TrEMBL record:
NCBIfam families assigned to the protein according to its UniProt record, in alphabetical order: F420_Rv2161c
Keywords associated with the record: Flavoprotein, FMN, Monooxygenase, Oxidoreductase
Keyword match Flavoprotein: yes
InterPro entries xrefs: Lucif-like_OxRdtase_Rv2161c (IPR019921), Luciferase-like_dom (IPR011251), Luciferase-like_sf (IPR036661), SsuD_RutA_monooxygenase (IPR050172)
This protein's name: LLM class F420-dependent oxidoreductase
Positions of the Luciferase-like domain: 21-230
Pfam families on file: Bac_luciferase
Organism in which the protein naturally occurs: Pseudonocardia yuanmonensis
PANTHER family, alphabetized: ALKANESULFONATE MONOOXYGENASE (PTHR42847), ALKANESULFONATE MONOOXYGENASE-RELATED (PTHR42847:SF4)
Domain of life according to the entry: Bacteria
Amino acid sequence: MVMDIGVCTFLTDYGIDPLVLARGVEERGFSALFLTEHTHIPTSRRSPWPGGAELPRQYSHTFDPFVALGAMAAVTDRIALGTAVTLVNQHHPINLAKQVASVERLAPGRVELGVGPGWNKEEMAHHGIDPRQRTAQMLERIEALRAIWTQEEAEYHGEFVDFDPMWSWPKPTAVPPVLVGGGGPTVLDRVLSHGDGWIPLRVRLRELDAFAERIGELRRRADEAGRGHLPVTIFGGVPKPDALDSYAKAGVDRVLFTLTDRDGPDAEAQTLAELDSLAELL
């Protein structure tokens, strides 16, 4: 199968200029540019970072993804612009719906919303979210977003989100696909019930056989439910030709390569050189 290749990055205040990056991604022929999100990082380190002992600096320096994507929309014409992933519980759905719709109007048909509940319990708590309810809250917020995007007089009444009929424009020209993040045992249930695709983070090559079985399960269940094809995007793929072949054989639709975090006066040149190297895999 033909597989799309894009990039994902922690866009920081000390790294490459966002517009230079967006132009560079599109000019080199990549299909997508996705941004990560953290509203902030609590100084408490009680929640362990899933990636290791020391939390990288980039986590606390990220741009607001929707402000950055709106600017990127103005200097690109082709690439998909998305999030990997938006921590939807850290936004009121009324505000988030308008942010996403506004970016989509600047990049019609090119915006995708990756979503996840997050891992940092202190970060959630600062937003008033009980970590024990994070998944249920996320699912309600996804439902509320779609109501606002698609209904002339939107309303939603749930356990965590509740609003009476209201007006909110702009509406997106096309409802942005919601890509559900995660790799746990019940994630496919959420993809099927609330998603338009799946965006798991970093699938190890030694785990690809089991991952291929999960993709097969997703496709079978989607077909049985009349959902059609639900695309799979891997966030944090291995940038090697044999890895790409393995992803394609497993049924992956798109791979996002994560750009290296860079600082200093040469950060921009080094990032563009990294894009040149990655583009050789296209």
